[in-house]
Amino acid sequence: MTPAIRTLIAAMLIAAIPGCEVPMSERETPTLSPEQARAQVVTAAREIAAALPSPVREAWFWPGPCGDGPEFRGQMRIAYDRTASSEVSDSQIAAVIARLRASGWTDATGFRSRSATLVKNGVHAVFRAQNASTATRGVEVLGGCGAPPGGAAPDSRPERIELGEPAG
Amino acid sequence: MSLRLADIERWDPQAVRAVADAAAGHAESVVAAANVLAAVTEIGWEGAASERAREVVGQTGVELRFQADQTLAIAGAIAPGAERIAAIKARLRVLEAGVRAAHLDIDRVAGVVMPAGSETATALQLGLDGLIDDAEALDAELTRALGQSAAAPVPRTPAGPAVPGGDRPPAEVKRWWDSQSAVQREALLATRAAELGNLDGIPVADRDRANRAVLAGDHGTAADAVREALELNGLRTGAGVLLLLYQPKAFGGQGRAAIAVGNPDTAAHTAVLVPGTAHNVTSGWLGEMSVSNVFNEMTVAAEPAEPVSVVAWMGYDAPDSLLDPRVALPGLARTGGALLAGDLRALAVTAQRDSHTTVVGHSYGSTTVANAAAGFQMPADDVVLVGCPGTDLAGTAADFGLPRGGRVYVGSASGDPVTYLAGIRGGSAGIDPVGVQTGLGADPAADGFGSTRFKAEMPGIGRQPWADHTGYFDPGSESLYSIVGIAAGDGALLGEHGMTAPHRSSVVGRVASALGLPNWANPITDPELLRPAATGHSHTNIPERR
C-alpha cells in the first residue's frame, strides 16, 4: 500500500466520524474588548453579591485564559463570611440559588463542577461550599470567552472590585 | 574579704531588681538588632564582595547574640539574688529588734553583740553569725556567676546547633528541628533562612517563612514570577499560600520552585501538580489558573471539615518547547522523576496526619510522574496522568508500585495529539510514515495497561487540537471534575458518576499498524472520539458529599 493510499484511508476514517463535525457556532469566537469582558462579570457579580446572606469581604477581577489561543474571559472571586456549620452554609447557598433563579439565572448545562453552578447571559456563577481550607466562602464568576480586538492581550493584573452591601 | 553589717545594710534589693530588668531589656534589644542585621544580608546583592559582607555581617550577628545571651545570664543570676538580699535584710531587722529588746548593742564593724556573756547575747550572736555567713555566700555566688559570664569567649562559629546538610535524610532533619526550642527555631529562621527553606524535613510552614525571607531580598524574573504566583493564587482561592521550595538560579536561571495552596502538612487530601513541556518558574506556570482551579474544586469535593492542599511543583527541568530535541527523549523525565520522588518523601515526613496524596502529571510531566513512581519509589496514594505522551519506565499500571487501593487514572482527550505519540500497547506503537518509533513509552489510556480512564473530552472537538491538550484543568471540564474527585479520595466513585471512559483499542491499533496508517490516524483507536463532551454523566451540579 503506497503512502498516498494509507493517508487517504486514514483521512476517510477520520472524516467519517460524526464527532469531528464542528458546529459553526463553535468555530467563531466573539470579539470582546477587555472593558466588555470586565463589565460582563462585574454586573453579574453585583447581582450575586446582593443575594448573598453575609457581607462580601472582598472581590477580585482578572482576565483568565480561555482555550489555548488569544481568547480570554473575565473572571471574579467573591469572598464572603463563613457560617458556624456546613449544614447552615449549604442551606444558605441553596437559598441564594433560589433567589437568583427567580431573577433569570438557570442551572448550567455542559459545565461540570462539584459545586452548584448557575448561568445567565453566558456568565457562569460557581458557588463553593464551605471548607476548612479557607477563611471565607467563595463564589467564582466566569464570563464568556472572547477574543480581544486586534489580538491585544488584556492586562492580567487582578483588580479589587467594590460590590456594595448585600441585601441580606 | 568578710562582709560587714554596714555593707549588708547598704544592699538595695530594689536597685538590684532594676539592674536585672535593665539587663534583660538590653538583651532583647540586642537580639532585635541581630535580627535586623540578618535581614540586611538578604538584599539580593551578588558577587565576591557580597559573600565577604555576608560573612562579616554574619559574625557580627553571632557576636550580638552572644552578648545578648551573656547579658541574659547576668540578669538571670541577679534577679533571684535580689530576693535573697531582701530576705537577709529582713532577718537583720528582726535580729536588731531582738538586740534592742534585750538592751544590748551591736558592734557593726566587728559584727559582735555587746556586752557578751549572757545567754541572750550568745543566742543573738549565733543568729548574727549565721546571717553574715549567708550574706557572704550570696555575695560569692553572684561574683562567681558574673565572673563566668565575663570570662566566656565569643564564639567564632554561628550561634546555636549546626543546621543539618541537605544530604541528611528528611526524618533525621525533622528530629533535629523538633529538638530545638521555640526560641531556637525562631533564631534559626532569622539567621539561617537560606539553609532552611529548601531543607527536606523542615515543616512546610517554616520552610515558607524561610523562603519568603530569602525571596524578599531577591530580584529577577524567577523571583518576580514566584511573588506573583503567591499573590495570584491567594486572591483566586482565599487560602493561605506557602513557598515550600525556592531555588531561583536552578536550571540555568529558569528556577526550581514549588508553592502550596493550603498547607500539605495539615491537609487531609493533597494534589501535587507536575507540568510539562514549555513550563518553568520564569514562564509563570506557578501562577497559572490550573492550580487555583484544582484547589477551588477540591474544597467542594472534600468533606467540609477536611482541609485540602494543592502543590504546584515546578521542581524539574522540563523541555523548553516542542522544538526542544529533549522533548522526544525521556532523560529529563527520569532526572525529574528522581527529584519529584525525593520532594514527596520529604512531604511525607512532615505530614501531621494521615493524608491522601494524589500526584497529577500533565503532558511531559506525566512521563516524569510515571518515572518517579516506577523508578524512584515515589510515595503517593493515587496517580493521575493527563495528556500523556508515554509512561517510559512504567510498562503497566502495576509498575507504579502504588499502595493497596491505589490506582493509575488517565485523562486523554480523543483530540489530544500528544497522547497519540505514546505507543498503543499491543498495537500501533507510534509508527509514523517512515516507520520511526515516536513517543515516550506506553499509552496509559490503552486497554491492557491497567489504568482507570476517565472522561476528558473538550467541547468543540477538532476546533483547536492544541487546546484539547491544554484544557484538562479548565473550569467546568469533565477532566477537572474527575481529577478533583480522585484527589479528594473519591476515585472509586468515577464509575458511579458515569465519568469513566473506555480504553483505546489495541485491536484497532493492530489493524492500523497492519495497514501502515500514519500516526495521525490513531484517533480511530479511541471510542471516545464519537462522544461529544459533557454527556453521559450521572452526577448533577448540586454540591455532592461522599
CATH architecture of chain A: 2-Layer Sandwich
**Structural domains of chain A: how many:** 1
Query: Helicity of chain A, in percent?
Result: 25-40%
Count of alpha and pi helical runs of chain B: 15
Give the ordered list of helices and strands of chain A. HHHEEHEEEEE
Low-confidence stretches of chain B: 425-437, 536-546
Description:
Chain A is an alpha+beta fold. Chain A has a single domain, classed as TBP-like, CATH 3.30.2030. Chain A is 31% helix and 24% strand. The model of chain A is unreliable at 6-28 (pLDDT under 50). Chain B has helices at residues 5-10, 13-40, 48-101, 119-151, 170-179, 182-191, 193-196, 204-216, 221-237, 289-301, 331-350, 364-376, 465-470, 478-487, 506-515; strands at residues 105-107, 112-114, 241-247, 256-261, 269-274, 308-314, 356-362, 382-386, 408-411, 452-454. Chain B starts with a helix and ends in a 31-residue tail after the last helix. The longest helix of chain B has 54 residues, at 48-101. By secondary structure, chain B is of the alpha/beta class. Chain B folds into 2 domains: 5-151; 171-530, Rossmann fold (3-Layer(aba) Sandwich), CATH 3.40.50. In chain B, 45% of the residues lie in helices and 9% in strands. Chain B has 15 helices and 10 strands. In chain B, the strands form 2 sheets. In chain B, strands 3-4-6-5-7-8-9-10 form an 8-stranded mixed sheet. A two-stranded antiparallel ribbon of chain B has the order 1-2.
